[in-house]
Design a protein that fits this description.
By secondary structure, the chain is of the alpha/beta class. It has a single domain, classed as NAD(P)-binding Rossmann-like Domain (Rossmann fold, 3-Layer(aba) Sandwich). The protein is built from eight helices and seven strands, in the order E-H-E-H-E-H-E-H-E-H-H-E-H-H-E. The chain is globular, with a radius of gyration of 17 Å.
């Protein structure tokens, strides 16, 4: 445990697994009270249990961020339970890929835009409206992707478009609201040690061998490494960092 975020409340969406869970655990280890959000209760409860095992404080809230009412309810829950909303990490997202754009199903397009873009917009709006009323303001980190603005892969047109939109939305919101004390940035992970980076039927060992030849670093990023970048941007150490898009991708976009 450290004290970097002691007395602050951090909200993390998509916190039931992967980068979201690692980020929630890292904030708790930094002394924050953590609100973990997602669409399914059981994995959120597991995240809370992991935090509490190490002496942290956490609250699980089931929510679908693509619904405005849910995004607003998340902010209310954080404030009602812990007294403030000081940090928000908009990590919830989905990937529907594997097909060229001409073969992309409309449902897959709409699902990715609804959650990855509209969900971030709705969450941002609710979070900013609260943070700008607080004397200390707040910080927000959106999770984009290196496949948004930084690199291209076949079969991921909708996902890439949605994550590029997150990066653009981040910069626009950062400019709009920094004068109100709300500091907003983004992190763009590449291949990370989560199920999303596994090809169909691929084992973790097989993924490791594949990326050893594909990525300049020779391995995928650990979820804890992405979380560390998020915590930096949310911390006072990054007080003058506004509207940046920090790429964490083992050199994959070089």
């Amino acid at each position: 445990m450290t004290t970097r975020f002691t007395g602050r409340t951090a909200l993390v969406t998509g916190a039931g697994s992967g980068i979201g869970r690692a980020t929630a655990l890292a904030f708790a280890a930094g002394g924050a009270n953590v609100v973990v959000a997602g669409r399914t209760a059981a994995p959120l409860d597991e995240t809370v249990a992991l935090i509490e095992e190490h002496g942290g404080k956490a609250l699980a809230v089931t929510a679908d961020v693509s619904r405005a009412a849910d995004a607003q309810a998340l902010v209310r829950a954080a404030v009602d339970h812990f007294g403030s909303l000081d940090v928000a990490v908009n990590n919830a997202g989905v990937f529907r890929g594997g097909a060229p754009l001409a073969d992309l199903a409309e449902d897959d397009w709409h699902t990715q835009l609804d959650i990855n873009v509209t969900g971030v917009f709705l969450a941002l709006r609710a979070q900013i409206r609260r943070m700008r009323t607080q004397p200390a303001g707040g910080t927000i980190v959106n999770i984009a992707s290196n496949m948004g603005m930084h690199t291209r892969r076949p079969g991921v047109a909708a996902y890439a478009a949605s994550k590029a939109a997150v990066a653009a939305l981040t910069r626009a919101a950062a400019l709009d609201h920094i004068a109100e004390g709300v500091r907003i940035n983004a992190v763009s992970p590449g291949a990370t040690a989560t199920a999303m980076s596994l090809r169909p039927g691929e084992s973790e060992a097989e993924r490791g061998e594949r990326v050893r030849h594909q990525l300049p670093l020779g391995r995928v990023s650990a979820t804890e490494e992405v979380a560390a970048a998020v915590l930096y941007l949310a911390s006072d150490d990054a007080a003058s960092v506004v509207g940046t898009d920090l790429v964490i991708d083992s050199g994959g976009s070089l």
